[in-house]
Amino acid sequence: MHKESEIRDPLILGNKTYHDITRDIARPVEGKANKYWWILFGLSLVLFLWGIGCIAYTIGTGIGVWGLNKTVNWAWDITNFVWWIGIGHAGTLISAVLLLFRQKWRMGINRSAEAMTIFGVVQAGLFPLIHMGRPWLAYWVFPIPNAFGSLWQNFNSPLLWDVFAISTYLTVSTVFWYIGLIPDFAMIRDRMSKTISPMKKKLYTLLAFGWSGRAKHWQRFEEVSLVLAGLATPLVFSVHSIVSMDFATSVIPGWHTTIFPPYFVLGALFSGFAMVETLLIIMRKVVNMEAYITIKHIEYMNIIILFTGSMVGTAYITELFMAWYSGVEFEQYAFLNRATGPYWWAYVSMMSCNVIIPQLYWFKKIRTSFIATFILSIFVNIGMWFERFVIIVTSLHRDFLPSAWTMFSPTFVDIGIFLGTIGFFFVLFLLYSRTFPVVAQAELKTILKSSGSEYKTRNHE
Amino acid sequence: MKTTKKYWKGLAQLNNEPIVDTLGQNEFIEELPVDKFLGDQENLSVTNSSRRDFLKFLGFTTAAATLAACETPVVKSIPYLVKPDEIIPGVANYYASTIYDGRDYASVLVKTREGRPIKIENNGTYSNSRVQASVLSLYDSARLKSPLKDNKEIDWKTVDSEIKEKLSLIKDGKIVLLTSTILSPSTNEIINEFSAQYSNVEHIMIDSTPYDGILDANMDSFGVRLAPSYSFDKANVIVSFGADFLANWMANDYATDYVNGRNPKSGKMSKHYQLETNMSLTGANADKRIQIKPSEQGYLISSLLDAVNGKSYDKRLSNIVKSLEANPSKSIIVSNSNDKNVQLLVNAINHKLGNYNNTISIIRPSNLKQGNTEKLDNLINNMQEGNIEALITYNVNPSYSLSRAKEFNTALKNVNLKVSTSLYNDETACLMDYVCPDHHNLESWGDANPKYGIYSLMQPTISPLFNTRQFQDSLLSWIGKSDYHAYLKNYWSRKGIDWNQSLHDGYFSLDEKLIKVKRFIDQSVLVKNQKSDALELEIYETVALGDGSQSNNPWLQELPDPITRACWDNYLTISASTAKELGLSNWTVSNGALNGSIVDVTAGNKVVKNVPVMITPGQAHSTVGMAVGYGRTRAGKAGNNVGFNAYPFLDAKKVVITKVDGEYEFASIQLHHTMMGRDIVKETSLTDYIKDPSSGNHRETYATYKGKLPSDQVSLYEEHDLSTGHFWNLSIDLTSCIGCGECVISCQAENNIPVVGKQEVRKSRDMHWMRIDRYFSSDMTKELSKEEKKSAIDMYSEMEVPSENPEVVFQPVMCMHCNHAPCETVCPVAATTHSNEGLNQMTYNRCIGTRYCANNCPYKVRRFNWFQYSENEKFDFHMNDDLGKMVLNPDVVVRSRGVIEKCSMCIQKIQELKLNAKKSGKPIKDVDAQTACASSCSTNALVFGDSNNKDSEVWRLRNDERAYDLLDHLNVKPSVFYQTKIRNKS
Lengths: 461, 986
Known about the structure:
The complex is a heterodimer. Chain A is an all-alpha fold.
């Protein structure tokens, strides 16, 4: 059995047995939802419906109901798209990369983080669809055999790369997530009473995919997990690199930057971890997972945030340096305008939320506080949204010819759709938290005897 | 054999009992418990039937609604029963004609398709944006559709008999024909016949902007009340005191001459000084612009006269005087003053300089302005006294456009017979007893004599759309004659004109006796400096709308002003410093749109409230400008209540403005005014150009392993093979472009570009495929910043501010048709692709509207259809009007919402040309290929052609030292290129 040094902090708190874990994880699925869940769900649903209304209005009337114009042809739509895609990245990193690196602490959080990934990608995927002038022709971006003559896609276009990158990402993430869920579904299936809830039992039987817990099943499970982790790992880097190429391959000053791929990937991880924290700090309270999502988990994530945040800051400064060093007046002006132009407040928000505030995590007191972490994670989420806004809007609104310079201001529809996706995201997440095992209990049980606090002290004695 | 088997339902039927019959009448043998069912309120809610019925109703209504929705709207298209010989569907016919609406004159070619005019082309000469747009005014559904009596529709017979009767009853009082300047000799003859028939007829001509000053001065100087003709091409020095001769002053053909006289290649380039108050289009093009207050003009002209007489003069004029002395009898002095004394001074200067018969001709006069304000004033006085029995108006709208409109309207009540011949039930027509609506120019016969010896003919290009009648026909019918067409033909045949040939050409010239003038008499009186500190007003006409007669033309309303770049408004122009003193400002709101303070303007007893303030660089300090042509109340849906009416202030000199609370929302398509130190419009001076033809156009080079190379020789990409076939290029000469916007309207007409309205323009969503960027110079430059050691932030923020009296440059920008197009690579569905003729093509059908191409366009020329702009009542302009839609070019698709559109280099015209060449088996002639913008340009600034044809003009221009690519460092290899702007300064 795996042996762990006793000076490492325990990852499972309290005097838990295997059965306790089973019970704890199955409780939200089996029991009734509490008041908080209903309040949150109600709020999210309202936002979601409002968002649907705004989307319907957009599709029915035209993109003109947004605040875009002839110079700024993308704004909140693509900002939101990149933001949501970025958020997804932490999930994949946690479940794939940390699996490969045998980081046991991922077990408490990977399930939810990956759920967040999938739900985030769903939100992200909405935007490229609805930002189109004619979304009913969206299927034209797929290379499907067609009757339009010899029409094919333009494989030079980063938007087309996006299509492949994101659809691959969504597929691999979903499969990976689902594979991990099989033993846990089986656990719920086994606990379900056929007489009390026959439908649920049937459903979980179906979802459990005939899992019987045989050694052969476990062996294949482990192998598939490893293979999928191997597949998903490059995706962590490729997806956001490709998203960044939407900008990097263009000619617009402020977009045309070779640093974008690594800068976007780090930014994505940065924002993703912040979102994981935001969600888990709420979730561990709402569905009583305090024993499995501990301050140690939070602290590990905070360290990653501190690291990626600093890297993002480095990227910002590198951009400024390169603009100055390039000697190209358009580049120089683009960055001067970012910092001192009419959208200086967005730049300041971005800089303070992403670079300065995460530096507080150097203090152990702050990085080991749930409340501080929660507040800081919100800052990071906001900051990263502004980063995309700054990149997209402030680069576009003043590009080459001053005659075309203008500004962008969102309409209620822009705001409504964004809030709607937040609502949609939480609706999905809250439904998930009541129907799915929110912690990978099968995996968690493998570390109970090595990293459980009770066992740790017992072993020590 | 016939079998007559019979069945019966029962013995009762067999026996024919009455009960069978009774029951047979009932559809339901058992009575339905309807009353019980509906009457029983308690059970109604629980009864099973209600649910079933509900489902039935639901099913029925759903099915019915579905079926109803399946019906497609039927659009009837009716084929010709007998096809006219000259019409081949799909092939355009061109007719030479004339446009003259009482203000703007042009000899034109009218392009018709399937019998409807769709486009105005220049007939080898010049036109302007209003002439170009007049084809849309033809299809204006606000036009009158039949004659009116007391604002009620009536038939022509009744109108004629009533008017004739009333006219014949007039014994003592006067009959007055109040018309615009009339250019038509045949119309003048009809008016003479009319005067002969009725006693006491007086014909009064007025111009919306009066030119009495010039006309009266010439009366004094030469004994003829005529406007001279100017040859700006022959002048080496042009000194204009406020005269906006490139846009609206006097005639509209000066721009062509002006640019012909400014050809740096030939070494002859006139030197143009402009001393003016408002920043006019002409001032923007001047080599040297001096700001003066309107009250200073007379004094400065006096001083100039002193100078040419060798006396001491105002030192501001020293350069002008030097230039004038160096170019004897090769200059033109003009002034926009309507003061006879000032114009006498101008005449004296021109005479002293020997300009008459060299650059200015009074013996070959222009006929475009013949109005007489004195007669008009007498008319109003006579009307007030009740001396006028009948008033017939033609081509004028006095109730709107007179400074004394209020008095005119009151006095109108004293006139017994009031007849208007307006096309619209406008401000004047609605006060008249009868309105006998005239045809539009494009439905009319006619002739015009705009200038000494030059005549043009007008012919109808479509049957009258409504029950209207030409003014000339109306006059003829009131003197018992008819058929103006025959009259006109007869008139010219008598003069020995080959009617058919002239009609075909559209114009002809006649050798006439020169006008006899007296020897020049100098009657000028010197004017002292009357400069005051008071806020002075100068009224102007906008380049788009002119006098406002075409206010209901949405193309013109949405044509941005060349200087302020705002549309759908007039406003008070004011300089930044004066605005600051008065606490007025302009600012942008969060979406970039421009807002401004509001003021009340008072001059004497005239007040106009809530006037927005537009800060305009170049406006003289302590002066304001206001444009006429706005504030129409009865123009139609597009023109009503746009801006305010400034005509009452036509004579006002000094104004008082008081700030009022609130802010005004402008629709400006350009919110940034300077080039920010960028190399966008390359400029050089004439002296530098003569020394080095490529001055101002030295290309940046990049260090490579092969040495220093310009950008186009450093490329990672494969080149498109453009060596065979055509390579369509467009050259834009920034020295020739005066920024008038005619090409913008021409492009809009050719390419079915929608009008989006003020609110959408305000959101920076104008749809024009080409725009004319205007940049002001700034006091801050890169060199100055280096000298003063300013930080980059300070430098750029100071660069954003235009100078108080800036130099102005205009730059038409449309799709550059890059041969390494950034838009083409980014479209995921390949909706925008490159042609092997060097064009960037947009496939609307394939576009899904990601707008990535628009983002990646360095020139920002791509336009997105944010909404459905056609057949959408939210965009209630010509495309939402069955009549207005007739102007659409059938060769160009009307774009649906959600797709990107942009300049196609008029691919439909190129394609037509290629097909014709293929049919005829002859190679394409370079000059035949024309885009709408290039063919409409009166100054020939845009030259289109095939660069693979080494004999072509565009190939020559491509290799000119002045040629440069916009944003050359991006190396996108545009097919459109520019020629450096050259200003005549040292």
